Fold this protein.
Amino acid sequence: GAGVSQSPRYKVAKRGQDVALRCDPISGHVSLFWYQQALGQGPEFLTYFQNEAQLDKSGLPSDRFFAERPEGSVSTLKIQRTQQEDSAVYLCASSLNRGYNEQFFGPGTRLTVL
Amino acid sequence: GQNIDQPTEMTATEGAIVQINCTYQTSGFNGLFWYQQHAGEAPTFLSYNVLDGLEEKGRFSSFLSRSKGYSYLLLKELQMKDSASYLCAVRDESTLTFGKGTMLLVSP
C-alpha cells in the first residue's frame, strides 16, 4: 500500500557526470510521469509512460535526458553529462490509468550539479 | 501551448478565508487540478474540476469557468498548517501543465 517512492532522495553530481534517478510507482498504476521542478517554480512535464511505452517525451530538455520503463513498473530517468542548469527536483508521479484524474507524486530527487 | 497564471504570493490570518485565483490559456482542456505542496515535499492532490461550477470538499472549495479560462481555490478557516504552495494545473490529453504556484503564508 506504499505510495510512489523515489531514490536517491538527494544526489550531488560533478558537472559532466552521468546520473540515474529511480521511480517506483504505486503497484498497478499504468501511467507514469516525470517532472522537473526548479526552485520556486511549478513542476514542468518531462515525459509520460503508459505501461512500458513512452507516449510523450516532448518535455525532455535535451538529448542528454533519457527515460525508460522496460517492464511497465519501475522507471529510470538518466541524465548524461550533467550541467549546472540540470540542478532541480525531479518528481515522479503515477496514476491508475490514462483517464484517471489524480496523479500521485513521489517525494522527488533533489539533484545538485556542482 | 499552455499558459497558466496565478499570483506568486499571498498572506492571510489564521481563521480567515483566502481565495487563490488561476487563469489559463490552453490549446486543449481536459480538467483543472489544484495541488498543495509543502516545502521539500511532494505535491498532494486537493481538487479536480472539469465542469463549470463549484466543488466543495471540507474547508477547501474549487471553482471553474471554462468560458473565462478561470478557476479559484477557496480555503476557509485557515490554519497554520495551510502555509504552503498551491499549484494550479491543467490537463490536456493526459499530461498536466502546472502554474508556478502561489505561496500562501498564514500568520497567527
